[in-house]
Specification:
The structure holds two protein chains of two kinds. By secondary structure, chain A is mainly alpha-helical. Helix content of chain A is 81%, strand content 0%. In chain A, helix 7 (127-151) runs antiparallel to helix 9. Chain A starts with a helix and ends with a helix. Chain B has six helices and eight strands. In chain B, the strands form two sheets. In chain B, strands 5-6-7-3-8 form a five-stranded parallel beta sheet, sandwiched between helices. The termini of chain B are far apart. The chains are: A mainly alpha, B alpha/beta. The A-B interface holds A 2-3, 6-7, 9-10, 13-14, 17-18, 73, 76-79, 81-88, 221-222 and B 50-54, 72-73, 75-77, 79-88, 96-97, 99-102, 138, 141.
């Protein structure tokens, strides 16, 4: 357990100290959400209606910007070779690095979401369900993202490929995330059904993601 | 005491056989120099022993070591890359390694820094270190990880003469204490009485053996 926590702590400290990825993700999130109402016009009902979808899509795109960092830097500077001979199986190391990515990217994005919801006239009563659905769905973004990051870690410009690889896999997160917020806003359906599926999806990716990421790293190091 | 046994190891990269067949044993306290021209397969051999590279055939095992651990978990491989994070200071880099490899000894980090003469720059972010200083910082993990088998790929690259002497002293002390070391190098490095494998002669890889 100690190596696992040490790896999470190191990645979080690196993420906060280097700051670039988090800054880019947060900045992108704020800007995308802020300019959309300018393009859509001042129809308050329309904005409130599409707010959950817009926030979720913008969140996924912002998270994509920072995914590359999960493995790329460690691959380039040789740390990954060291981790591969360490006491943790690579699967656990991949899990630790995905969790660290979630902590230093997803949590700030989730926290800022209600503020951006105000720009979209989102009902304050939906703030709680919005943050809850994002908290349940974003770990899947990091777990699947680790797979993409591991597959592209040997590439020089893997960022765009990463988006093409991963966005289709994020569709379930998007659908059930938005559905649960819509239900909480009283737009039909129950909150628990899509929310439970979202949680289940996250749990499945928590198992599959690190396994696939470790296999990809082994082949990248080989 | 553990003993490294390499049996009929065969390595190929990109369809080119680098090491057709290689068998050797390395006992406790022994050192092995791997020599050969560029592209002869020195790095590949070390990576195959460390479990980072999948050989086509053959095995490498540590007999008499900890049976519950794989060879990868009992060796310390240092390749061309140092594994140093530029935004961490020298001591932060090593403290992470100590925590990750479960070294609980408080003085271990300071001792490793002192062994390579890095105490004075322990609190400087590694981004400001020179290539040789980063190399020394990378080598510090040999002492931190306390593993019986050291696999060093061109360890003396970018080291000055004094640091090269420090490094060969560290390797000799490791061998005196019963450790094993496999060092690939073009440059002369004095690690006491050692055996030599010349991959250039053995595999004819300098001219390329194509499948």
């Amino acid at each position: 357990m100690k190596p696992f926590l040490a790896l999470i702590a190191r990645d979080v400290r690196l993420g906060l100290r280097e700051g670039g990825a988090l800054g880019a993700a947060l900045g992108f999130y704020v800007i995308v959400v802020a300019i959309l109402p300018l393009g859509l016009g001042p129809d308050m009902n329309l904005l409130a209606r599409i707010a959950p979808g817009v926030l979720w899509v913008a969140l996924l795109l912002s998270a994509l910007l920072s995914l590359e960092r999960i493995f790329h830097a460690d691959y380039e500077d040789g740390t990954l070779e060291m981790l591969a001979t360490g006491p943790l199986p690579l699967e656990m190391a991949a899990l630790a690095k995905s969790l660290a990515h979630w902590i230093c990217t997803a949590i700030p994005l989730i926290i800022i979401s209600p503020v951006l919801g105000l720009l979209f006239n989102l009902d304050p009563a939906a703030f709680g369900p919005l943050m809850l659905s994002m908290a349940a769905g974003t770990p899947a973004v990091s777990f699947l993202g680790a797979v993409g990051a591991a597959l592209t870690c040997g590439l020089r410009r893997g960022g765009l490929l990463l988006a093409v690889l991963l966005l289709p896999l994020y569709v379930p997160v998007l659908i059930f995330g938005v559905a649960s917020v819509n239900a909480a806003m009283g737009l039909g359906g129950s909150f628990t059904a899509p929310f439970s599926i979202l949680c289940a999806f996250t749990l499945v990716t928590a198992v599959i993601g690190p396994l696939a990421a470790a296999a990809a790293i082994r082949s990248a190091l080989n | 005491m553990p003993k490294l046994v390499v049996k009929s190891l065969r390595c190929a990269r990109g369809g080119r056989v680098l090491i057709p067949e290689l068998s050797f044993t390395l006992g406790a306290g022994e050192g092995l120099l791997v020599q050969g021209p560029n592209g002869a397969g020195k790095t590949t051999l070390l990576r195959a022993i460390a479990g980072l590279f999948q050989p086509e055939a053959g095995t490498a095992r540590l007999e008499g070591g900890d049976d519950e651990k794989s060879l990868a978990e009992q060796c310390c491989f240092i390749g061309h890359l140092n594994g140093v994070k530029p935004s961490f200071t020298a001591s932060e880099n090593l403290r992470f390694i100590a925590a990750y490899f479960e070294i609980d000894d408080d003085g271990a980090v300071d001792n490793a820094l002192a062994a390579f003469g890095l105490e004075a720059i322990a609190h400087v972010p590694s981004a400001y270190l020179s290539a040789g200083q980063k190399r020394r910082l990378g080598l510090c993990r040999l002492l931190l990880m306390r593993r019986p088998l050291w696999l060093l790929d061109e360890p003396s690259v970018s080291l000055d003469l004094a640091s090269q002497a420090v490094l060969s002293g560290v390797i000799r002390r490791h061998m005196t204490a019963g450790g094993m070391a496999i060092v690939s190098t073009h440059m002369p490095i004095d690690i006491g009485t050692t055996r030599v494998i010349d991959l250039g002669g053995q595999s004819d890889a300098a001219h390329g053996v194509w499948q």
